[in-house]
Design a protein that fits this description.
Length: 437
């Protein structure tokens, strides 16, 4: 317990309220405000800008220093030295695996990559041009209809098998979304391939030909999954925790995370970045888009810039930019027009007073879309890729919440509606003429 405290004096309250100050391993201290409710007060913090919702040991972000640690390891070191499945093990279990543990984990995941054949029929209910994120929301939520054997969230064995199934099956389901949109047959996973190589095989292989997966491209895909693996209490992870706090099964919680990630302010930004670059179309148009981003009367924002926590470079975007250069060089696309626009836009934005003052730097979504487009992944699949990588973070936080003990999440509000009023019969009511939507 801590001996640091804050003392809150409130006009009209006889005694001040002592609020314990709690410290983490690193990062800002927090005020424990749980005593407020007993004194008839709530905190008010729309968007949770100043609110810590939980304790966690999984990921730490220092937004000012541009640092991202997974279980204490810097993201750039993991991107260079590790791979996605090893990072999954680290996020789930808290330590890097031994060689034998790594081999066993890869074997477990590899042997859970297939999905029930009825899932294939489930896809046939979607029109061919359904957005892949709409399909993923539905399909992942429906997985709980198939795995009745592992839905007891109080059983650690059920929790870990659900985690393995989700990590293993997300690439298969993601590729199925793409194949359905192309009118092509689904490709089964190939257990002789690595995780990311297998994903590209299921995306771009067909029963008629199974193209060789370029190892540089497979490594880039693996790095994209790794860079998206977890990011502490972002909107979608907070959604997964909130859904899990009601006791919902892991597949339903992950489906809720997918739905939240879809928004353009969050995981949908990578798709929005490509659409923005294509709308800019030429370097000569950049200035007018930067001017629009600064214009308060214009809702346009520079997609791929800014972050709630990072007020410095997002360390993931630095690695993503290096990967982008590697992929485009490998594919002979160094002069890709969109890349040229992106690099020029980044340079202009980073020199512009508005972006400097508001500390708006490129985030993880700024370069990832250019890599995925170069690989041949359509823009409407970008957020599906983000969701595939982020699944391990979601399930690690869900598991941590249950293991550490939790209460159902139930925020309060500042009520600004009518106080109690009398009912008026329909004959005596004036027209409403609603205008509040
Ligand atoms: C992700 O939380 C996470 O960790 C998320 C994520 C993860 O891994 O899970 O990192 C992934 O979601 C990355 C962010 C992807 N989104 C985008 O690239 C969309 C564009 N960026 C924004 O809309 C915005 O920057 C947010 C949503 C990312 C952050 O918004 P905040 O923290 O609520 O900040 P804000 O909207 O209050 O902005 C502060 C100021 C505002 O101006 P003022 O009202 O103070 O005058 O900066 C301005 C904003 O208008 N601003 C921008 C801008 N982003 C913020 N102006 C122009 N272009 C932008 N991109």
């Amino acid at each position: 317990m801590t001996d640091k405290k804050a003392t809150l004096s409130i006009t009209g309250l006889n005694d001040p309220i002592d609020l314990p100050v709690l410290s983490g391993t690193v990062g800002p201290d927090v005020l424990d405000v749980r005593a407020l409710a007993g004194n008839g007060y709530f905190t008010y913090d729309p968007g949770f800008v100043s609110t810590a919702s939980c304790e966690s040991k999984i990921t730490y972000i220092d937004g000012d220093a541009g640092v991202l640690l997974h279980r204490g390891y810097p993201i750039d070191v993991l991107a260079k030295e590790s791979d996605y499945l090893e990072t999954c093990y680290l996020l789930l279990h808290g330590e890097l695996p031994s060689k034998a543990e790594y081999t066993e984990f890869v074997d477990i995941i590899t042997n859970h990559t297939m999905v029930h054949e009825s899932i294939a029929r489930f896809f046939r209910g979607f029109h061919y041009d359904s957005h892949p994120m709409a399909m993923m929301c539905g399909i992942v939520g429906a997985l709980s209809a198939f795995y009745h054997d592992s839905l007891d969230i109080s059983d650690p064995r059920h929790r870990i098998i659900s985690a393995h199934r989700l990590i293993a099956k997300m690439p298969t389901l993601a590729a199925m979304c793409y194949k359905h949109s192309q009118g092509q047959p689904f490709m089964y996973p190939d257990n002789d391939l690595g995780y990311s190589e297998n994903f590209l095989h299921m995306m771009f292989g067909t029963p008629c030909n199974d193209p060789y997966v370029n190892p540089v491209i497979a490594r880039a895909m693996d790095r994209i999954f790794l860079l998206h693996a977890d990011h502490e209490q972002n909107a979608s992870t907070s959604t997964v925790r909130l859904a899990g706090s009601s006791g919902a099964n892991p597949f339903a919680c992950i489906a809720a995370g997918i739905a939240t990630l879809w928004g353009p302010a969050h995981g949908g930004a990578n798709e929005a970045v490509l659409e923005m670059l294509e709308e800019i179309g030429d370097e000569k148009n950049i200035d007018q888009f930067v001017a629009r981003a600064k214009d308060k009367s214009d809702p346009f924002r520079l997609m791929g810039f800014g972050h709630r926590v990072y007020k410095n470079f997002d360390p993931r975007s630095k690695v993503m930019k290096e990967t982008c250069d590697e992929v485009l060089a490998e594919l002979g696309l160094e002069n890709d027009p969109l890349l040229r626009i992106a690099k020029r836009l980044e340079q202009i934005a980073l020199e512009d007073e508005y972006f400097i003052e508001k500390k708006l730097y490129p985030n993880v979504d700024f370069y990832s879309g250019i890599i995925m487009k170069a690989i041949g992944i359509p823009t409407d699949m970008f957020t599906v890729i983000f969701a595939t990588g982020r699944t391990v973070g979601w399930i690690a936080h869900w598991h941590e919440m249950i293991t550490d003990g939790y209460k159902i999440g139930r925020p309060r509000q500042l009520y600004k509606g009518y106080a109690k009023r009398d009912f008026v019969t329909r004959d005596d009511r004036p027209a409403v003429n609603p205008t509040n939507f």
